[in-house]
Amino acid sequence: MPQVVLKLPASTLEKMKNHYHSQLKNPPQNAIFAAKTNACTITAYRSGKVLFQGKSPESESEQWGKPDSASLKSNSNSKQPHAFHPPESIFTSSHIGSDEAGTGDYFGPITVAAAYVTKEQVHTLKAIGVKDSKHLSDRQIRDLAKSIVELKIPYSLLRLPNKKYNQWQRKGWSQGKMKTILHHQALDKLLQKISPEKPDGIVIDQFSQPEVYQKHLRSEKLHLQPNVYFMTKAESYSIAVAAGSIIARSAFVKAMDQIEMDTGLSIPKGASAKVDQAAAQVIKHYGEDKLEEIAKVHFANTQKAKKF
């Protein structure tokens, strides 16, 4: 039976437990929780390891992280880098990078951005402090996003509104499929924008195995663009991915600020107990339907908020 093993931090395990709240089952000994979906059974252990086992484990695991290659039991060659791993030379050449924000947050949209950085601009962006947005404050992200735009770095930005997100989720789309389609559209728009110039390659911050990404594309009759590479933690290597990450994160932060302005309530990021309380306040002041417009309602936070 196919299986995937991920090694995840405690914070992600808590998000997963919330996410699968309605699908939990009795966990085995030494497990934190267990859940069963249409795709597979998920078991999370205190060591941080999470086992996805069933007919389609990758379709479920892709939204939480990339498996350690040694953990892919169904592939005897899994210790070798996949065929879509980028060559080292791509990071100093003219290339496109794409990344997303907002996928693990209950409130706010998913944002995806792609940026095109020429080899002459690589050092300029590094010099102004462009790096992985996870290591930057919201203020730094806003300032750097503004600087990237002022430097006339070509980019494309897509926002998936919560209402559309909830519709797609009810159609049976996983977050992995949503992100795939958004990345693909963002890349298409940017390639059109810079045409006839062609990048030496495209680096996507990997959130699923390349074959799963392509499967999602085929399901919508789409095809992978030429010279696409996938890499985990790509924003630490590719300045174009880092720029895309900052633009996507900046758009997400702005969207969260707008939700706070619209509701007059404090709207926290993430999916913690504070988020449960904020969702309860939204229901109290605006009714449950409001969550459809500003939240990913299939997260367990919705059910928890109703109990307040």
Automatic annotation (TrEMBL):
Q: What's this protein's family per the entry?
A: Belongs to the RNase HII family. RnhC subfamily.
Enumerate the UniProt keywords alphabetically: Cytoplasm, Endonuclease, Hydrolase, Magnesium, Metal-binding, Nuclease
- Species this chain originates from: Halobacillus alkaliphilus
Q: Which HAMAP family match?
A: RNase_HIII (MF_00053)
Q: Which residues cross the membrane?
A: none
Gene it is expressed from? rnhC
Q: Which GO terms describe its cellular component?
A: cytoplasm; ribonuclease H2 complex
Class of enzymatic activity (EC top level): hydrolase
Record-level GO BP terms: DNA replication, removal of RNA primer; mismatch repair
Q: Does the keyword Hydrolase apply?
A: yes
Which terms does the record give in the GO molecular function aspect? magnesium ion binding; RNA binding; RNA-DNA hybrid ribonuclease activity
The top of its lineage is:
Bacteria, Bacillati, Bacillota, Bacilli, Bacillales
EC nos: 3.1.26.4
What catalytic activity does the UniProt entry give for this protein? Endonucleolytic cleavage to 5'-phosphomonoester
Role of this protein: Endonuclease that specifically degrades the RNA of RNA-DNA hybrids.
Where found?
Cytoplasm
| Keyword Magnesium applies | yes
Output the InterPro entries linked to this UniProt entry: RNase_HII/HIII, RNase_HII/HIII_dom, RNase_HIII, RNase_HIII_N, RNaseH-like_sf, RNaseH_sf, TBP_dom_sf
Indicate what this protein is called per its UniProt record: Ribonuclease HIII
Q: Which of this chain's residues are annotated to bind a divalent metal cation?
A: D99, E100, D205
According to the entry, every stretch annotated as the RNase H type-2 domain falls at 93-308
The cofactor note reads:
Manganese or magnesium. Binds 1 divalent metal ion per monomer in the absence of substrate. May bind a second metal ion after substrate binding.
Q: Which Pfam families match?
A: DUF3378, RNase_HII
